[in-house]
Design brief:
This protein is of the alpha/beta class. It has twelve helices and seven strands. The protein binds nicotinamide-adenine-dinucleotide.
Length: 320
């Protein structure tokens, strides 16, 4: 398994000995709900988790695809319609999972979209949609499942953030903001859950080989993460809970090292590894299909009014 290669070897010695003392929690017969599970990372997670004997529910905007993919999985997997931006849809999804499979032991808040546009050019409707799916969807999911988990004194929520939840990446500013929000939200809620029996984890993959990353490249000398690596890390986290999970694991020490460097050295690293080009040099043709899917079904939103000219304002004030 890729996960066995990544962890615990990639952990520092103290964390390694702490984790090795933890008892492994088998996934067999646990009920795991995955949002955005019809394709990409969510589907890879569903395959890996159900291979361990868990009962998996895939929720997705694309309900037909979710049902078709679930039908290929073992252990009685189900695929259901879900729009994480609609609290009623999310509630119905969780209720249906509980009726058909039993209480949700784990929720993976995975559904997300990414828009690659310079900050000032991104349409307002896409800005709002990213915040609705990537942040509000995660909040809604947590509020729906945590009360039941607290009553049962057991459960696990895994929020899929991104490496973009720890660093800034030009060309995807609002996406970066949503992923920083998920990291901060997870850290704060984790403190509220300490001692309740409910685990919370945040998973932060680097750029991964799914449709979401089409037309993008990971940077000089950096490989795209394969969905199976992310899935293996999620399986490992469900079996041996920990809070922060980077994929690949080497990103954690790298980010901690970069965080103590002066800003000028970080800017230099950014240029050296060409991470400044990840979302600014994008092949828009290769990305067109993903961009159309990610933005489909959006209501139009008026852009904010342009800022008024300060000189004009002074003249108006003087005239009145
Ligand atoms: P993907 O586009 O391949 O799959 C995402 C799935 O989410 C799709 O099936 C889509 O239909 C579904 N979805 C979108 N909006 C939804 C909604 N409102 N309600 C329910 N389902 C919805 O993307 P992916 O690469 O698998 O990304 C999954 C998660 O991983 C996202 O949160 C993303 O931000 C995060 N992530 C991705 C990468 C990457 O490079 N691929 C890297 C780090 C983090």
């Amino acid at each position: 398994m890729v996960h066995d290669r990544l962890a615990p070897d990639s952990l520092p010695p103290v964390a390694r000995s702490r984790r090795s003392r933890q008892t492994r929690r088998p996934l067999s017969r646990r009920v795991v709900a995955i949002t955005g599970g019809a394709r990409g990372l969510g589907l890879a997670m569903a395959e890996a988790i159900s291979a361990r004997g868990a009962h998996v529910a895939l929720g997705d905007l694309d309900a037909d695809l979710a049902a078709a993919e679930a039908a290929k999985l073992p252990s009685g997997a189900i695929g259901l319609s879900l729009d994480v931006t609609d609290p009623r849809s999310f509630k119905t999804f969780i209720e249906t999972v509980e009726e058909r499979l039993g209480p949700v032991d784990a929720l993976v808040n995975n559904a997300g979209i990414m828009v690659c546009e310079p900050f000032l050019d991104e349409p307002e409707s896409l800005t709002r949609r990213q915040i609705e799916i990537n942040v509000h969807g995660v909040i809604t999911g947590m509020r729906l499942v945590i009360p039941g988990m607290q009553r049962r004194r057991t459960g696990h929520v895994i929020n899929i953030a991104s490496a973009a939840g720890k660093v800034g990446v030009a060309g995807e500013a609002v996406y970066v903001a949503t992923k920083h929000a998920v990291v901060g939200l997870s850290e704060a809620v984790r403190y509220e859950l300490l001692g309740t029996g409910v685990e919370l984890s945040v998973v932060m993959p680097g750029l991964a080989n799914t449709e979401l990353a089409s037309g993008m490249s990971a940077g000089r000398g950096v490989k795209l993460v394969e969905p199976e690596e992310v899935a293996a890390a999620v399986v490992g986290t469900l079996e041996q809970p920990r809070f922060e999970v980077y994929v690949p694991g080497s990103l954690g020490p790298l980010f901690r090292f970069a965080a103590v460097l002066p800003r000028s050295a970080r800017d230099l690293m950014n240029r050296m590894f060409q991470t400044d080009q990840i979302a600014t040099k994008v092949d828009k043709t290769a990305r067109a299909m993903y961009a159309a899917r990610a933005s489909s079904g959006m209501p139009p939103v008026d852009p904010p009014p342009p800022p008024s000219d300060p000189e004009q304002r002074v003249m108006e004030t003087e005239a009145s």
